[in-house]
Amino acid sequence: MPQARVRDIVEIIENAAPPALAETWDNTGLALGRMDDPVKKIWTALDPLPLVVEAACKNNVDMLFTHHPLLIRPLKSLDLATPMGAIISLAVRHNLTLYSAHTNLDKTRGGVNDILTQRLGLESEKDLVPGQADQPGLGRVARLPEPGALEDVIARVKERLGLKWVRAVGNKNLQVDAIALCSGSGSSLLPEFFASGAQVYLTGDMGYHHARSVEDAGLAFIDVGHFASEHLMVEAMAHFIQEQCDAQGLDVITEPCSLEQDPFAIY
Q: Which GO terms describe its cellular component (predicted)?
């Protein structure tokens, strides 16, 4: 089998999630590494956390693919004693490539929002925020197989996402046939939710005033948390990258990182 290079894996990812789809503020793509470096082992993860990078280095991983970028804002200095500095120092010393696909992977067909929609057993009808020039946009609006009460929708979400709890706002007897959803932090898309025709908004990181706005509109939201709404991509992307490498005859092993946990705990 031919030796895979970073550029081969990047091409696979970018064909699926074109960088042009990313939001202007985003910093998707190669954060650290060289395009010509050889790749035999890839890990996928949600975040380039210190524990993930450290474990990747110990396990001889050549490339770490994450959803969230290592760097969103430009660095003014690089103190190697800081968590960020330690990650970069460790990755450089072990020749670990760091690459991310963020809002472009959120938007693209088959990306994070579609993975979430499919896991919930919903049928996507349209984008919550339409993209430009027939490109996919942020979020999705999807139909339930059968209309039901909000409390039944909440039970469905908990079961299908393997969650013990969610935060929810709305009358438990509200009749629901359409759900708007946005992986990650979707509070900024409340106006689009209100205009979508959906009765429920599923996302993460909703606040008190968002809850009041939804309540006043006679609608509902289900906050599953940022982590739960996006972590599904880790296994899905590992499978996708491995499938594409196999199809191209590239000698690569791709594995999902199993170390990440939701930082929030309920006591």
A: cytoplasm
| CATH 3.40.1390.30, applies to 4-105+232-256 | yes
Task: Give the C-alpha separation, 164 to 166, whole Å.
Answer: 7
Quickly name the fold that domain 109-224 has.
3.40.1390
pTM listed for this prediction: 0.96
106 annotated binding-site participant = yes
The Cα diameter of the chain in Å comes to 60
Q: Which two tokens stand for residue 264?
A: 């929030």
CB 161 within 8 A of CB 119: yes
Each residue's pLDDT tens digit, 191-219: 999 999 999 999 999 999 999 999 999 99
**Is position 67 annotated in a ligand binding site?**
yes
What digits encode the pLDDT tens for the residues 6-50? 999 999 999 999 999 999 999 999 999 999 999 999 999 999 999
